[in-house]
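User: I'll paste a sequence; please echo it back and then give the predicted structure.

Assistant: Echoing your sequence first, then the prediction.
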Amino acid sequence: MKRLLPTLFLMLIGLSLLTAQKKTDQIINDLEQKSGMYSEIAMEIWELAEMGFLEEKSSLLLQKTLSDEGFTIQSGVAGIPTAFIAEYGSGSPVIAVLGEYDALPGLSQKAVSEQVTAGGQAGHACGHHLFGTASAAAAIATKDYMEAHKIEGTIRFYGCPAEEGGSGKVYMVREGLFKDVDVALHWHPGASNAANIAASLANKSAKFRFYGVSSHAAAAPDKGRSALDGVEAMNLMVNMMREHIPEKARIHYVITEGGKAPNVVPNFAEVYYYARHNRRDVVMSIFDRIVDAAEGAAQGTGTTMDYEVLGGVHELLPNLVLQEIMYANLNKVGGYGYTEEENLFADKIAVTLGSDKADLQTIASVMPFKSEGKAFGSTDVGDVSFAVPTVGMNAATWVPGTPAHSWQAVAAGGTSIGAKGMMVAAKTLALTAVDLLSSKELIRKAKDEFIQRRGEDFEYIPLLGDRPPALDYRK
């Protein structure tokens, strides 16, 4: 009998590995068979290129896609017409998959290797057409696996509008829409395949509006009070402040209104500010100082000022337990290769980025795992990560070396290169969702780490306050 025990143990291990491989193969094959359909959906959203809070057709297309697959739809959540939740199953665990679909203004571009505007107002320079579609595909594949194998629980897709400056997810978190979620999954288009611990910068944004008195700039300048002077005085003080803020902090601004003619003293001017840091308390402190500068500028120029907070997001809270699971699944999926036509396109794009050729190794492989991330940008996923254990990844949807928010990103995202990378993400998300639905122990470990990192007594305070959704924030 003693001799039989090691043999039985090895047999059980082999059976477990075989079952795991069958699960992987089934999910990957299922998604591969539907890749053409998902590519068409993504390219339709790419053509629409709807900006934040205006993604009516994009949102409806994803809602219909999920509804046709048996998901129940709750639309217009959190007071946002283009936000929705699609759900399949019941009870716990509840696994959420986040999806975005907003485009960026001013980046209209055709799917070609030179800069050529498509004639629209916006473009998918951050690949959110791929983001939303791949996440929906992952939710559907997870649903199919749950049905086939009688797995209990809930898979839920969150249709998240206006990530680009609108902080759409913050309103959803504030409304308590993640309260019963066990784990949230997300991904992002990029120039490589990676599932490392991620980091992001907390961010608070606002428009500062100055009001003066119009007059003839030459004949009666003493009668006028320039609102533009207020903006420029504010900017001067904030720029001097840069020397006296933490090194990792970032402040950006753009003057959105400065007057109409030089011979008219402008009675209205507006400046749009971002403040960022990898800790939200530092962001709040810097923002308060920016407000002080604005108030001082108004007093010094004889104008008045008010401001409107438009967005505010937390930094990302990492979860190593979940990240290791997602990294393992990304390795199972792996990268992909270019066709000859895709390679020619990529090489031409690479030239515009200062390289001779595209580095194909980047899209064919998975980046080594890193347990620490470096923060560059901001995302409203940060607020989700403080509400529920959250994990994400990147997939190579752009030509290697391509920066986000560029015409090159828009161009590649409208080709088969973007669609191939999108399916890498869909497969990885689905495999991770099924792993979590099948193991309460994994979820428990993830939640333990979540509480340890966030703190037992954490109180969620949205950086954008209690304002209603800023549906017109681009005006």
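The longest strand covers residues 202-211. The chain has 14 helices and 14 strands.
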